[in-house]
Specification:
Strand content: over 45%
Number of helices: 2
CATH topology: Porin
Structural class: mainly beta
Number of domains: 1
Order of helices and strands: HEEEEHEEEE
Shape: elongated
Number of strands: 8
Radius of gyration: 19 Å
Helix content: 10-25%
CATH class: Mainly Beta
């Protein structure tokens, strides 16, 4: 909980202490966005990278890669789970529709993801071990997000979503390429 409060406080500090700069609409000229950040999940803290490219007015398409790891201990039994996710995604940016100020970006969209997992088990104090891996199949997710550009080419990103291992949401830094 302390980490989530610290991340939230950092995002607020950056948003309100940095000088903002006027933006052009990057979602109508083929520009690209690169975002790196952390997510919220019951399966550890996901780290992710995301790439999006404007493919039409106010529409971006791209993908993301995430990694997370979680350990569990019950008595002398220990599990270590690792999940890697690959997602294709598309978003519609509502800035023109909402007549939002240039430094803001409001968007929503869908993703289609595939997840690979690995689990290691050490039971009964080390007398029994197991290692297994597999894939989670396709998953569909929805996302709703906001981005605030603190400079012409850099912004803070907050996104809420469902249907993926990043289901609780993400916070990150976006670079306009």
């Amino acid at each position: 909980m302390k980490n989530k409060i610290s991340i939230f406080a950092f995002v607020l500090f950056v948003m309100f202490s940095a000088n903002s700069y006027a933006q052009y609409n990057p979602y109508s000229d083929g520009s690209s966005l690169f975002t790196v950040g952390v997510g919220a999940s019951s399966w550890g803290i996901p780290l992710f990278v995301r790439y999006e490219k404007a493919v039409a007015d106010n529409i971006t398409a791209g993908g993301s890669l995430s990694f997370q790891s979680k350990g569990e201990t019950y008595g002398s039994n220990k599990w270590k789970h690792t999940i890697v996710g690959l997602n294709a995604r598309g978003s519609y940016h509502f800035n023109e529709l909402l007549e939002a100020p240039d430094e803001w970006d409001f968007y929503g969209g869908m993703s289609l993801g595939y997840y690979f997992w690995d689990t290691k088990y050490d039971g009964a104090g080390g007398s029994y071990t197991y290692s297994g891996s597999g894939s989670g199949g396709l998953g569909i997710g929805l996302h709703l997000g906001a981005r605030y550009f603190i400079k012409d080419n850099m912004g803070i990103n907050l996104e809420l979503g469902g249907g993926s291992v990043l289901a609780g949401g993400t916070v990150g830094v976006t670079f306009l390429l």
